[in-house]
Design brief:
alpha+beta; Beta-lactamase; 2 domains; six-stranded antiparallel beta sheet; about 15% strand; globular
Length: about 350
Amino acid sequence: MSFDATSYQNKLESCVEAAKLQGLFTHCAYAVGFLPQSKFKMQTKSLDLNASDLVFDLSSVTKAICGTPLVLRHATLNNQFENENLQNLFSGNSFLGIELAKELNFKDVIRHEAGLPFWKNFYVSDEKSNQRAIEIPLFEALRDRPNIGKNVYSDITFILLGHILQKTKNINLETLWGEFLASELKLEISQAPRPASNLKDLSKCVSTGFCYIRNRILLGEVHDENAWALGGFTLHSGLFGSVNDIVRYLEAFFKSDIGQKIWKLNCHYAHEFNNDSAFGFRTGRDEASFEFGSGNSLGHWGFTGTSLWINPNNCSYLVLLTNRVEKSRVGNLSQMKAFRKSFFKISQEYISAASKT
């Protein structure tokens, strides 16, 4: 029995057009379907010319689809990796603060339970000045740990893990990411979300607006100031990709051994309801994301206006990419929340109907 998605497609496109008229973003692309073969996939049609190939700054979605697998690929070589401290787990490296890393076990760090601050400044306002060394703010974060005993989502988590990984492997993160895609997922870098250094055609990139620190409009350049100051790509932010890139990545990820291992870990820890972090992925329990999968979904959102959620109960997924920050960094957050809630609700109605066919 065939399934007609037209009515749901029209509802989603009306939802997106209304948000555009509100001035929430200039571009949007999406895909909704089932893994591993993207059965009943519904994605952007008429909203933008070739919208499914438009390239967005994925922001913190990077943590789930890149940071988590790169770190776990190394960490799981140790049978006791979950409760191992960082110094032992990533042995053979030395940096300012490594002694303090003895006090942190890997599970607490990746689940945002290590007491690290929510954010810290790794950049300076004058691009021509010497940018602050990564190890000084990392040392301060490890030394102070202002949130001990709390679950506080922190960008520092993946900046720290990425720095330790680079020091351990003595290879830059761009190279490690390319090797992971090729060896584990059998994908070329051009087929998957990738750093700005791997973008070949900026005409397909969506702008994230004017940056007052860099004094220029950002196009094919990471929006996050800390990621920019640290070279343009870290494990907390720095990937760019289209809807098609993400869907290709998801299909390959869930077919791979390492993908299944990472997914099982995240599903296991998602059942601990005292923490909205699973094991590198986030749980979709916030008010807007709850609409897709009734709080059971796993994935991540990004500050630039991106979202990726996967429901383990039926293998359904939702990818929503916008350039929210092109209009405002913080002034449209409540309106975006309302938009996402409506968009996710329609997407879930589509998934529920499609699953009955």
